[in-house]
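Study the following:
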Amino acid sequence: MEGIRIYQLLIKATRPQLNRFEKFISSPYFNKNTSIVALADVLIDSIKTGTQPPSKQEFWEGHIEKIKGQFDDLKFRKLCNDVLDRYEQFLINEELAKNRLLKSNLLLTSIKENKLIGLAEKHISKSAKIMERSMDQSADYYLQKYFYNKSIYNLKTNYEKKAEIKKTIDSITYKDLSENLDAFYVIEKLRHATDVLSWRKIYKSNIEVEISTALTMLKDLRLSELPAVKIYHLMYLLMSDAGSKSDFKLLRQMAEEQIDVFPASERREILDVLLTYCIKESNKGSSVLYEDLLNLYDWGIDSEIMLENGTLSPTTFRNYVLAGLRSSSYPEVEKFIQLRAPLLEQKHRENAVYFSSARLNFYKKNYDEVISFLSKVNYDDVFYAVESRMLLMATYFENGDFDPLESTVDAFLKFLQREKKLENFKKNAYLNFCKYLRRFIQFKEKDYEAFMDKIIETNPMYNKAWLLNKVEAYKA
């Protein structure tokens, strides 16, 4: 049963989530079908114990046959869909439990629909306090505040004779409704535009987004006085290349002061824009921004913005190391590898540490150490399979070991030609590098100026700057 969709979803859940789902699906209010409970229990138990779940037939014979007769694949698939349906309902309940503003608004809607006058008096006061005390000041906050004001405003028809309720209703104006809706619209427009600009940089696309109306509203309605609007406006400016170093500093300051008022997903969006700006400017040669980049990584990890379920991704780990090496912050990189390695999942830890240690020693020109660390890297992950070979080739070159270099280039070319996991752009970038590196180490070029021009014109190509540097040094 490992291939069924509900098992594939449950295996990604945390243990606390699995425990809560077991309680949910066993509740008579949410589910009265014992067959559904049986299948869920078997799947969850196999996940918790790390054992293989039984086959469809084994499960059916052990838990369902006495109730529904002999195994039928159609009935089994129906049962799987029923468990999936309950899991989807569970996920909805999980999100609803976390969103107090949404719950409050849904209750107000129900109060109006069911004409629950007594409950209205109590809940209007309670919901107002929830709004006032809400930590979340993101776009969703303004949307929920709009729905809250709208719900209160709509209660006027039903309860305008009630003095206490009327007092609250009269304090809600059309202006309140409009301002909250405007704030939500502008934030979401800026957020969407920022996402599009990010996609355009990553995927080299020409996606366009209409932002002029939102920018006009931002200016005319003075919405930038709202922190969330200001933060997303700064993010948009930095991603659109219209932002300045002062915009970066202001966004960083506001983020560090107010990051807690945003939901987790938006915290990461804000941090990613700051990191992207730093990387872009650092690539232009600004060592100061490399220092900012390392500080942002440290802040992102310490504040757990960069962590998922308490763990650090290998990509983030490697990116920190690379940024530190490019700014010659070798002691900081060594310290990072030592202290942050425990944050990596066990299955990713060794490869990330060995590869990052190899990179560190390459920058420190300890080439024998580089080869030693790379020999311990497992090549099952395609990233390490290609990047370790690239680093090994550069190490052989720097060390003057041209025989093993040439054989490594040849082996890498064969690997690239048969590798199916690499997308074409990346594969071509690696192939082009190997092609020109092999031509260079064979020393058969007669005109190195022309050779360098060919390298410059060839795209895509990884490590182009390094190769040009080596050709230039040899030519001189």
